Amino acid sequence: MTQPYDEIHIVGGGLAGSEAAFQAAQAGAHVFLHEMRPIRGTEAHKTGDLAELVCSNSFRSDDVETNAVGLLHEEMRRAGSLIMAKADACQVPAGGALAVDRESFSATVTRAIEDHPNITIVREEITGLPPATWRNVIIATGPLTSAPLATAIHDLTGEDSLAFFDAIAPIVYKESIDFDVAWFQSRYDKKGPGGDGADYINCPLDEAQYDAFISALLEGEKTEFHEWEKSTPYFEGCLPIEVMAERGHDTLRFGPMKPVGLADPRTGRRPHAVVQLRQDNALGTLYNMVGFQTKLKYGAQADVFRLIPGLENAEFARLGGIHRNTFLNSPLLLDQSLQLKARPSLRFAGQVTGVEGYLESAAIGLLAGRFAAADARGEKIIPPPQTTAFGALLGHITGGHLAEGAGAKRAFQPMNVNFGLFPEIETPLMDDEGARIRGKEKGRARKRALSRRALADLAGWLNPAPRAAE
Fold it and tell me: What is the CA radius of gyration of the chain?
């Protein structure tokens, strides 16, 4: 006997899987959420909580008007996102970004899933393709998909999954930072949700200190890769600092160590370079080193990072690490409803589809959960307009590279949401007060126009007008 068609099985309890489960359950489906942790761990996770954050506690910019990430935040809020609701409830100061207390966030998501009457959590590892009796499945196992399941997917599709390494930044105990050297300031004193314009700890380096740091970084002992891993590319948006330093002596000074918008209160001047640390928990006792993903071995990390002024006596709650990520060649394998073309009973969601970032992963989980619920009800699936952040992401992973022909497979790479994925729009000539828009303001005006169009089109997708009687 086959299962009732309103049952949905979701494999993976990360951000995407948790969001998919919640969305489908809210639509009335009975959801079984299969999560292997804590029975089997991964290289990066530390707990058995759902939606555990492993790389950063930041959901990035919350600026809805001129930042595509902030627009995605707002679209998810309007779509009833569980992940956004809990992120807002667990936020900590982070300038113009939305950052959360890592442990509190995962715990509250877990409770919400456990308490939902339409969701059953099953703690088990799925070691192969789901059984054929599961007719409505979402695979949201993330970039750390277990080897048996990844092999089964590869065998089914006949397509190689692409892979890259993702690195984790260290976390420092605040009490071990020397505030005779370091100071609090957000870049350009920008205030964000719950912040006061002084949300980051800044550690300044003069030119000689920066030169010494770069030399030690390049000479430090690195994690060795297995032979089969050596050709795996990094994701450009999450490069280890050593890889960036290898690209040029000043690369870090124009990247995560850029000093713009900051002034050392001891001198009143902008330093040569700056290391920023962002609050990682609600108590304000832990701070992570922004953009300092690393593949240095643990002993080398402590030695190299203590060369940074203000961190000479730093104590680390967690040192950095590195793990291998995998993702599908989604433009060739998935349709617009995220179904696997070779087996339509399977959908995919999250980072495994080729989006990058916590919020992007959760957003694809939100769409997958809604699509699966519509399937369960026998309804037609209507994707979000590509003018929305939802639609732009979906378009990237399900068709963004097909036009590149034979090179599509090689070209497809993970992508954060950005306005480059949106259809073009005419830049306004006048602002809301009727003044002519000039110079750099043209770019901001264009972004505001894209955001306004997105939210207007999102409203129509979330609340479609009733069809006229035939």
Answer: 23
